[in-house]
Fold:
Amino acid sequence: MGPEAAFFDLDKTIIAKSSALAFSKPFQAGGLISRRAVLRSAYAQFVFLVGGADHDQMEKMRQFMSQLVAGWDVATVKEIVAETLHNIVDPIVYDEAVQLIEHHHAAGRDVVIVSSSGTDVVEPIGAMLGADRVVATRLEIVDGHYTGEIDYYAYAQEKANAILELADQRGYDLASCYAYSDSSTDIPMLEIVGHPHAVNPDRELRKAAAANGWPVLIFSKPVALRARMPLPQSKPTLAAIAVGGVVAVGVGVWVGVKRRNLSA
Structure:
């Protein structure tokens, strides 16, 4: 038997909202998106929370990302995410997920977050949660700016492929590994481990869980992460002040408008 790992989807599995829709207010304060895009993201967040994200919705989100982040300054995005991370993400982490992460670490397992959201959002969240590794979508960057193209899309079967590659590199015994997700698009990821779990599953995943005998977990208690683990204080920048206590609406690197279009 080799080492073991627990693979977690991020949105609606570890956090109660979409990480790709979580930073609208700071991005607006940083000059990346317009007020109209913030309002549009509120609707997108509502649809995501109520209906989940099936293949067609995820494809629309991918197209959004490809078209709308072109021209964004990468350093600005990273700075805004770093400065506002705890204000945004801290209050929407599921307590049950934090307990599971702690449990798997205590059992000597690696914790790996596997998310379709962009690395510039997922990696800081993973570091905040103490994840050992992160697999996330990578956007093409040229001369310090996003081109609007995608280098690597961590979605559906590609998540499973990434886990298989990690297992080969790290020697993970997949039959002893765990996986957690809310979405039917992650069924390939769940099928390749010995201990798959459906978390707050959408309709199709609930059916698959029932057919395969997979446990169904319901996470319902977002917790202030600061109450569970010490977190560094973020700097009181303009973006952090702008976000204030607003965490219910947002847009990440998938939803917005090109900076050069803001004056149009």
